[in-house]
Each structure stands twice: as C-alpha cells, then as structure tokens.
Amino acid sequence: MTSPEILGQFIPLHYHYDMLRDNYRMTAFQQAISQTVQPGMTVVDLGGGTGVLSYFAAMAGAKVYYVERNPELVAVAQRFLKMNKVADLVTIVHEDAAQFVPSEPVDVVTCEMLHVGLVREKQTEVIAAFKRNYTEKHGPKLPRFIPEASLLALQPVTQAYEFSGFHAPVPLFQPPVAQMPGTTELGQPALYETVLYDSNFQHEVAWKGVLTMQHAGTLNAWRLVTKNVLAILVEQQTEICWHNQYLVVPLSEPLEVQIGDRVEVEVAYQFCSELTDLWDGIQQRLHVPFGQKKLAA
C-alpha cells in the first residue's frame, strides 16, 4: 500500500501539476484571494501543494505560511515560489496540515483538499483539526476560510453507458457544466448537505429526501454536484464559486419514470472516505405508477 505521504493527501504528484492547467479553478481561487486578502494580512495555506494559493496570497500583499507534509511537493513549492519572486513572503512549513498551529493569529486560511462529495481528500478533517488547535492557542475568534462553504447535491439523470458498442454502467467524472453529451437531466439537483467551514459541522452525511421527476425517461444514474463557495462578497452582493468535477454513478436497477414520479433517496457516508463509500451510500425507493416496470440493469 502506498504511503499517504507519497500521495500527498491521496493525490499523486502529477495531478497537482495538471490542476495548474485548470483555468476555471485557478481563476476562481485567484479572484477569491485577491478580493479577501489585503496587504499586511497573515495567511495560512493548508495543504499548499505546488504553492499556487500561497503565491496568490503573497501577491495580494500578505505574509504567508505554506503548510505541506509531502516532501516532494515542499521541494516543488520552494522552487516555484522562488521562481515567482515571492519566496521572501512565504514561510515553508513541512508538516501535516492537521497538526499545524501558527505562532501568531492569522487573518485568512486557504485549504483546497476538495473532492466531489468531500470524500477521498482531507478537507473537512484538516479544517476541523486546525480550528481546534488554533482556538486553543489563540482564542475563539477564527480567521476567514477560503472556501467559506461547500454545497453538496445530487440530480437524477439518464446516462449513456455505451462505449463503442460495449455496455458498461460505470461511475463517470464530467466537467462541471449542466449540459453534457450522453447525459439527460430528469430533475433539478437536490441539496443534501451544506458545510460552513467557520462553523461546527458534522463529519458524515445522513440525509433523506424526495425528488420529483420533471422529465420522463430512464432513471439510471445520479449526478453528484459539489459547489464550493470560495468567497462571499457582501458589499458587491455576490459570491465567487468553484465546482469540483461532477460524478455520475449508475443505479443498480434503472427505472422508467414519468413527469411527477417521486423518488425517495437516502444518502449516508462519511467525509474523507473512499469514493466507493459515497456511491454505495446512496439508496433509493422508487414510487412507480401501477403497470410500470423496472428495466434490466
């Protein structure tokens, strides 16, 4: 089994490089940090990766603590921050982000250990640990967090599972856009959890709800949506958001549905667990009008 230190909170090194090419992610975080961080502030970047969020904060005029436990990423960040001429503003801390406590009060904390449904990476675990350690040392006033919140939702869809004639209902990642070839929406996304990072939050999901079908079709998958509110801009009456990739997971028993059909759904899993725990934790009971039949999986 590969050491989590090598994976860097379960994300291989080359994935960190690939994330730098995600213009949507980069632009959203750059805007959120530039709108939140002011010159003279102190910022902690938990799980700093390649150092890009530390760079954004330093460019906004902040003193920054970059915290990362993966030695390969620490070396990468040191090189990149020096290359971008902000090394004198960023203190490199080679330490587990869940154990780090700054020696002084700070104004803003950035933490991007985000995965769909808040599984696999350690976002909630690290922020909860930081808040406990920080308030014990510096008192109850917390810094501002980027992101400020994550909103989790699921949506009923029809998903095409034909691959060059090969039928294979498998989980699929998608770009975070509403319209995708091969995916047909049967209803609106239903919010099943909201995590506010500056508040106390649960570390597991236990949600029950009823979704009403707005379109007829074959319900054979759920699309999971993870919207991260990076910054709420009160004066501008707006917010800066970034979505993780969508995840489409197949139902074991597809069903033909009509407009107005109701689906009872239960979602139960723990944050920071594996992806399989997320899709295994979705159960549904389908209320089918008389005479309607289930389709073969």
Automatic annotation (TrEMBL):
Sorted UniProt keywords: Methyltransferase, Transferase
One GO BP: methylation
UniProt-listed CDD domains: AdoMet_MTases
The keyword Transferase belongs to this UniProt entry's keyword annotation: yes
Keyword Transferase found: yes
Cited InterPro entries: Arg_MeTrfase (IPR025799), Methyltransf_25 (IPR041698), SAM-dependent_MTases_sf (IPR029063)
Domain Methyltransferase: 43-132
GO MF assignments: histone methyltransferase activity; protein-arginine N-methyltransferase activity
PANTHER family in the cross-refs: PROTEIN ARGININE N-METHYLTRANSFERASE, PROTEIN ARGININE N-METHYLTRANSFERASE 3
The protein, known as: Methyltransferase domain-containing protein
Species assigned in the record: Bremerella cremea
Taxonomic lineage of the native organism: Bacteria, Pseudomonadati, Planctomycetota, Planctomycetia, Pirellulales
